[in-house]
Structures are given as structure tokens and as C-alpha cells.
Design brief:
Layout (H helix, E strand, L loop, with lengths): L11 H4 L9 E3 L2 H9 L3 H4 L3 E6 L4 E5 L4 H4 L5 E12 L2 E8 L12 H10 L13 E4 L6 E4 L28 E3 L4
Parallel strand pairs: 7-8
Antiparallel strand pairs: 1-3, 2-3, 2-4, 4-5, 6-7
């Protein structure tokens, strides 16, 4: 099945932080994840982590305050967001997972790539994102928006936003803004 990939659409200054070897830790198997988790502190495990699913379908993890583009080594991804875990009876499970990445703005339809990557890493997962974020680019003013409460209206120019994901426009990179309360 052909999956949509997402290129980085965030600020150029954040992409300049990418360094060779600085990407997130790859989780190709349960052993990879267990080894990684064993090196985390209780405090670290209490917070969500930044994640991407790279173009090969591998889950990569980095500390929450890391930029998604750094976690992905500046490459395209199949999904990106934030994720938290818990351990019960020797098994790891996802507590919460979202597609909240203002650098890649992945659509909620990217969930299957996340599910497959989590399965590959041996992590029990929910049936979908526990928090879904809808990103849209305004066709009128070209600004990026986070759709709030189903209000598909541009926060900048009050034009209607499309129902379908449309963020990736060649040559466009700008800040994502949330819809104002209406």
C-alpha cells in the first residue's frame, strides 16, 4: 500500500538544527525499545516523547523538547507527533499518541504507519491517535492553520479551509497557527 509521506514544512531555522547522527533513536524491535526504555529515568518516562515514523516505517524517539525535523534527520516521514508510554507487568504500552507536529503537519490518516511501527517495536497500542490534530493550509492566504473544534475557517483571513489535508505546497514553509475561538 502506497503511503503519503510528509516533508518538513516548518521554519528553516529549525531545520538548520539537523546534524549528522543527531536523529531520534530507531526502534526496530522489542529489544530496541526495551533497551532504550531501560536507559530512561522515571522523570523522562513520565513525559511524552517526540516521535517520527521514518520513510522506512521505523519509529524514532527523542526527548519531548526535540524538534521533529531533528528526530527525522531532516528527511521525509510517514507520521510525526508526541507519544507517552507506561509499563505494566513487563509489557510496554502507549498511553497517549498524537499527530501534533507543526514541522511536518501530518494528517490523521497517517495512523496506519504509526500502528505498524509500534507493532514492529512490540509496543501495545490504541486503535488510533488518542488526540487528533487537523492541519490545513488556507487556499486564499496560504497560511497554515490548526483546525480547532471542527471550525474549518482560516484564523488569518476568515476564508473556508478545505476538509481534505492540503498542507504540503512546494516552496511553502511558514508557521502553523491555531484557529481563534469563535
Amino acid at each position: 500500500m502506497q503511503r503519503r509521506s510528509y516533508r518538513y514544512v516548518g521554519p528553516a531555522e529549525l531545520k538548520s538544527l539537523v546534524r549528522p547522527g543527531g536523529q531520534g533513536r530507531s526502534m526496530r524491535s522489542p529489544a530496541d525499545f526495551n533497551e532504550w526504555a531501560a536507559t530512561r529515568t522515571v522523570e523522562e518516562l513520565a513525559e511524552p516523547f517526540t516521535f517520527v515514523v521514518d520513510a522506512a516505517g521505523v519509529l524514532r524517539l527523542a526527548p519531548r523538547r526535540s524538534e521533529h525535523v531533528v528526530c527525522a534527520a531532516g528527511e521525509v516521514v510517514l507520521s510525526a507527533g508526541e507519544i507517552s508510554f507506561s509499563e505494566e507487568s513487563g509489557s510496554w504500552a502507549v498511553d497517549e499518541v498524537s499527530n501534533q507536529s507543526t514541522g511536518y503537519c501530518p494528517d490523521v490518516s497517517s495512523w496506519p504507519a504509526v500502528a505498524e511501527a509500534l507493532d514492529q517495536a512490540g509496543i501495545v497500542r490504541p486503535s488510533g491517535f488518542t488526540h487528533e490534530v487537523a492541519f490545513r493550509r488556507c487556499p486564499a492566504c496560504q497560511q497554515l492553520n490548526v483546525v480547532r473544534e471542527g471550525d474549518f475557517v482560516c484564523v488569518f483571513c476568515d476564508e473556508a479551509l478545505p476538509w481534505e489535508w492540503n498542507v504540503d505546497r512546494p516552496g511553502c514553509a511558514s508557521t502553523v497557527h491555531g484557529n481563534r475561538d469563535r
